TrEMBL record:
Organism: Saccharopolyspora rosea
Keyword Transport: yes
InterPro entries noted in UniProt: Bact_solute-bd_prot1, SBP
Family statement: Belongs to the bacterial solute-binding protein 1 family.
Sequence intervals crossing the membrane: none
Designated name of the protein: Probable sugar-binding periplasmic protein
Keyword match RNA-binding: no
Signal sequence region: 1-22
Function: Part of a binding-protein-dependent transport system for a sugar.
Record keywords: Signal, Transport
Length: 439
């Protein structure tokens, strides 16, 4: 699973990277090891336990192909730890990150090397990757990372709940989503929520502005790179739709209901326990359900889109695990061989995708018959293969823009923003000011 589970790591890396001194990219990439030359490559990744075991098995396959390159794998290494190692002059040769939102800083500061010289030297075909993943692995034209795996988000729905309510198809528009949510909601005798058809609170479970925004066509920035919340009508429509559904439940009742839900990544997940009938979530949820709630009857579909934007149906937010070579890597030539293997080799990507329950990030691997294809999982493969796929937004200051948007959403949904238009203008000013300071 990729990142986006919390803000602490992103904020920490923002501080650390801002103090890195940008390096001058080496236009002459280091050559691969000579025949018979023994080299050790260190790999730092955020994976732990079972997930680290999946990665290590694929690294063993790389070593079998390149017996002169020994790979040392270090798990539990988030962006902050890796950045501290770079600053301390002891970087890994290969870095794997689950938080591509930090890539703007990592590229801009030179903390991760520009891979352009390697890509050009070895004539790597970037057309092998979908457009969206190419967008979130570069910043301002510098490609300091390649995609390794992806998360794609869609709609999960409880088919038993649908059958009880006499509903025979998933909603396709946001109006249908709201009406379906109301029909599926069950209240206790005291008026409290027993089952929510859909939870319209952002910052809850997998509800986040970046997961919702593509379905209203809302853009984070304009052509000049300025924050566009007040100027893009999609944001106003999204927030007004949200407020209408919040008002149906009552903000106080929703607050109490959400407080009693299980953690997003635990066996007590609200959708898995039947407390929520519809939810936005990533493809990895299918693996959690198979392991933790195998008797749950459910299906998946693209998330509904704004009523006036039927052309967007089939879009989905995508983010992913990225891989690169830190500044100062001791064995950059050998590191590039491993980076290229983990990002472009079909066998490696199929093994990683199936093992980690993430979507492979090349078209060839995505369409490989060995990729697991349950009916529920196929939805996310189709979303990822769509030209409507929407990448995580680029940012020069890590996740600060996203955090500001989510903080605003929390204030708005609980009635603490009396004027939506003014609030969005102030949000733009806050984000743009932070960009100027960070840049």
């Amino acid at each position: 699973m990729t990142g986006w589970r919390g803000w602490a790591a992103g904020i920490a890396v923002a501080v650390a990277v801002s103090s890195c001194t940008a390096g001058t990219p080496d236009e002459r990439p280091q050559p691969p090891p000579a025949p018979g030359e023994k080299v050790t490559v260190t790999v730092s990744s955020p994976f732990t336990d079972r997930e680290l075991g999946v990665l290590d098995r694929v690294l063993d396959q790389f070593h079998a192909r390149h017996p002169d390159i020994t790979v040392v794998s270090r798990g539990s290494q988030d962006d902050d730890k890796i950045t501290q190692a770079i600053r301390g002059g002891n970087p890994p040769d290969v870095a794997i990150s689950a938080d591509p939102i930090n890539l703007g800083e990592l590229c801009d500061s030179g903390a991760w090397q520009d891979l352009g010289p390697y890509l050009r030297r070895d004539r790597v075909d970037l057309g092998a990757f979908p457009r969206a993943v190419l967008e979130y692995t570069q910043y301002r034209g510098e490609r300091c990372a390649l995609p390794m795996l992806a998360d794609v988000y869609g709609l999960y729905y409880n088919t038993d709940a649908f059958a009880r309510a006499g509903i025979d198809h998933p909603p396709r528009t946001t109006s249908e989503l709201a009406e379906t949510a109301k029909r599926l909601t069950e209240f206790n005798p005291d008026g409290s929520i027993r089952v929510a058809g859909f939870v319209p609170f952002l910052a809850t479970q997998a509800n986040h502005p970046w997961n919702w925004a593509p379905h209203w066509g809302a853009r984070w920035t304009d052509a000049q790179g300025r924050s566009a919340f007040a100027r893009d009508p999609g944001w106003r429509e999204m927030f007004r739709w949200q407020r209408d559904l919040v008002d149906f439940y009552g903000a106080d009742r929703l607050t109490r209901f959400v407080a009693g839900l299980g953690q997003q990544y635990s066996a007590d997940n609200a959708f898995q326990r039947g407390r929520v009938a519809m939810a936005v979530d990533g493809e990895y949820r299918t693996g959690f359900i198979a392991d933790q709630a195998p008797r749950l009857h459910y299906a998946t579909a693209p998330f509904p889109v704004a009523d006036d934007r039927p052309d967007l149906y089939g879009t989905g937010f995508a983010t992913g695990t990225v891989i690169g070579i830190p500044r100062g890597a001791e064995n950059a030539g050998a590191a590039w061989e491993l980076v290229r293997y983990l990002s472009t080799d079909t066998d490696a990507l199929v093994a990683l995708g199936n093992g980690l329950e993430n979507v492979p990030t090349t078209t060839a691997a995505l369409r490989d018959p060995r990729v697991a294809r349950t009916p529920q999982y196929r939805t996310f493969l189709d979303l990822f293969d769509s030209p409507r796929l929407t990448p995580s937004p680029p940012s020069p200051n890590g996740d600060a823009s996203l955090k500001a948007a989510e903080d605003f959403a929390v204030r708005w949904q609980t009635g603490r923003v009396p004027d939506l238009g003014r609030g969005l203008r102030e949000l733009d000013e806050q984000i743009d000011a932070a960009k100027r300071v960070g840049g």
